[in-house]
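Why Oligosaccharide repeat unit polymerase? Reviewers of the renewal asked for a concrete example.
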Amino acid sequence: MIQIYATILAFFILLMFLFSFYFDDDLLSPSKLFLILEFIRYVPGLFLLEEESSILFTEPLTFKLLIYEIIFIISTLVAIYLFMGKKINNKKVYKDIPMSSIFIFYFIGFLAKIIVFNKLGGVSNIMSNPQLAYQLQSHGFGIYNIFYKFMVIAILALTDKYLHYKKLNYLVILVLMVSFYVFSFLVYTNRTPALILFLILLFIYHFKVRKFKIYDAVNPRVLMVGLLIVFLSFSASQKRVQNSGTIETSRIFDIVRNLSYDGRDMFVYEKFSEEPKLYGRGYLNIIPSVIPGKIDKPPIDDGLYLVNYIRGYNVSINTNSNMLPSRTGSVPFSTPSYLYANFGILGIIVGGFVLGYIYILSYKYMQDYFDSFSISIYFYIIYSFGFSTGKLVPVLITIITTLVLKKIISLKIVIK
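Here is what the prediction returned.
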């Protein structure tokens, strides 16, 4: 019966995907990207897995997941289609950014990388023991991680510059900048930042150079790009063996499990159908998080609370980090499950509608300004935005940082 429910969900998402072409033919529009992500997060897991996040799939839980997921998809799509026709203000002007500013920004991020490499014993030491290096750079180097964003801003600015002037020297410098940025993360066996930058550049190519079409799926160049995405995605999901330079390659089931939200959603729908809802109390954790120097405060990552719930601990959503019974691992809420945990079925309906409005708003913003920065913001919202604090706060920080750094690097002179 679980396979039948999975087939129904797969067919429903496919039907909605085909229906979306009635409104637009953009393969990277909010409706199509949303449906693709929902398919990846729920359908393969139901077909290939028996459990996820230690939650065994059962027929009643799977049926409940199917119903709530369909309601969430419909609510989100209604908002997207309802607000799709909103007028665009059209602020498409090119702001020329001098190479000196681009080099300075990139050098700031480059210098931060060099300092971290040096503190970790050099590139050769990092490559010989990537697991230890990854753990060390993930803890205690937070201030340097902020400066890595300067490299991304420089790359986005240079991308716009190349697309405007079409000069070969700009392209060569851009390739070198992207290559070093990617290498600086691959050396830790950390492919996720490389994958994200690659996807952003893919979005920029789609919107500013040539839009992808369905028939491009048989194009050899597109197939090569697809293989690269699969490679980076596969590598990003690889497991690092503690205190070892070796990598345990995940099999296909492990990759599906890493991408799946099925089990955790089933657990949340069951738990909060019987217990009191959270009613937004998790958002109160944001307030103490901005207080510097305060150690005993609730975590922003609410996946720490969900992992405690799954392990049988009945903790408050506002419990301080050092008071949590289990402090290892994190199981992030999905957007529909977080909405349900807070406000029930009404939360899924209203929250899905609001999410669809945010998606289409970011799409219109991107079409309005139509530069690499606005395209990257659209990507971050579609790819990462959610209403749980663990998703909401990082995305807001990324968007605010991008907008602020864009202001800093940009000149006042505008070339129309």
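The two ends are 60 Å apart (CA to CA). This is the kind of structural detail the renewal will allow us to pursue systematically.
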